[in-house]
Amino acid sequence: PFDVLVVGAGPAGAAAAIYAARKGIRTGIVAERFGGQTLDTLGIENFISVPETEGPKFAAALEAHVRVYDVDIMANQKVDQLVPAAQPGGYATVKLSNGAELKSRTVIVATGARWRNVNVPGEQAYKTKGVAYCPHCDGPLFKGKRVAVIGGGNSGVEAAIDLAGVVAHVTLVEFADQLKADAVLVNKLKSLPNVEIHVSAQTTEITGDGQKVNGLKYKDRVSGEEHTVALEGVFVQIGLVPNSEFLKGTLELSKFGEIVVDAKCHTSVPGVYGAGDVTTVPYKQIIIATGEGAKAALSAFDHLIRTPAP
Ligand code: FAD
After folding, report:
1. Is the pLDDT of residue 135 over 90?
2. pLDDT score of 43 more than 90
3. Which keywords does this Swiss-Prot/TrEMBL entry list (predicted)?
């Protein structure tokens, strides 16, 4: 059995495993993909002290850093269920989809999130070639260019306002007949000179020249007319989905499915911690996820030294 078992090996999980192992306690990490979302990222330019790197390189560095320590790594394993300890200080059980069961005194859930796709032709083909999901990450790559934002909720409208300050022109495309974002954001957006808004607009295709994005097609749902917008980038902002399905009924989740955590990464179950994009912590970024992973491990250690072993 483990003292600390980390579920997920993205930035949050890797940081948690390193911080736990440095305390000399029995540490395991179980995950489907070592590196998490960073594997799908082209350039990373905002991990402080690393001016520029690439996603797969960053993921490999995460794994190499974890391997410096005595950590039991179980990669390519999916977790299906978490069963909290029956009594305080007891062992929680983590069930894998291959049927195996792992026992640990504390569990850190760092299973991350995934961006909801719009599922139109061109989206997959031009991912990282003009199709983007994170304005904080990729906005500066489109400096002086034309982009579209798909989605008129809070994240879409915030993204459009943010991008309008960086790029030449923003077209916001919303499926519904009005923007769903808070009025203060909508008013701000409408005040910007380089933003165009289309509601009742169904994105039908992201077009490209084979190398990179060159346009977006949408259908006006009122007139039925098809339109094409010439541009260089498309930001898809229709939701970030936490990988927390397997925790329903076990941990308290927000209405968005995020694990509810406090400032020390405690969840609603003693001995179980949450870190990174899967939690309610705002601003889903690598540097934030690593900090949260470190915090969760220190909280788990704190719990272990205060709770008698079973
Ligand atoms: P993740 O990276 O999502 O890792 C989750 C881990 O949990 C993975 O190992 C996954 O396999 C595992 N997992 C999930 N479910 C299960 C399960 N049931 N069983 C077992 N394992 C499971 N951020 C930046 O700061 N800068 C950038 O430039 C940047 N660019 C980005 C570009 C793209 C295309 C994307 C998608 C994201 C980008 N981000 C960027 C955001 C950043 O990648 C995330 O904030 C960060 O990876 C979150 O780390 P995490 O450890 O919380 O989760």
Report:
1. yes
2. no
3. Disulfide bond, FAD, Flavoprotein, NAD, NADP, Oxidoreductase, Redox-active center
Nearest to 234 by CA among 204, 256, 199: 204
- Side-chain half-sphere CA neighbours of 140 within 13 A: 6
The strand pair at 213-220 and 101-109 is best described as unpaired
With tokens 């309610």, the residue in question is 280
Taking the centre of ligand 1 as the mean of its atom positions, its distance from the CA of residue 39, in whole angstroms, is 8
Q: pLDDT by residue (tens digit) across 269-304? A: 999 999 999 999 999 999 999 999 999 999 999 999
**Alpha carbon distance 231, 222 (integer Å):** 24
d(CA 276, CA 126): 27
Interface ipTM > 0.95: yes
Give me ligand 1 centre to Cα 277, in Å: 7
Would you call 77 exposed, middle or buried from its count of C-beta atoms within 10 A (0-12, 13-18, 19+)? middle
If DSSP codes are grouped into helix, strand and coil, which group holds residue 165?
A: coil
Q: How far is CA 138 from CA 55, 91, 142, in A?
A: 13, 42, 7
What does the CA dihedral 44, 50, 56, 62 come to, rounded to 10 degrees? Answer: -130
| pLDDT for 208 beyond 90 | yes
* Total number of residues shown for the chain: 310
Give 108's contacts (C-beta < 8 A, 6+ positions apart). 4, 5, 6, 7, 13, 16, 20, 265, 272, 273, 274, 275, 293, 296, 297, 300
Residue type, 49: S
Please name the helix (run of DSSP H) or strand (run of DSSP E) that holds residue 94, with its range, or none.
strand 92-96
Residues making up the binding site for FAD: 3-18, 267-277
Nearest Cα residue to atom 27 of ligand 1? 137
If you measure from the C-alpha of residue 61 to the centroid of ligand 1, how many angstroms do you get, rounded to a whole number?
A: 15
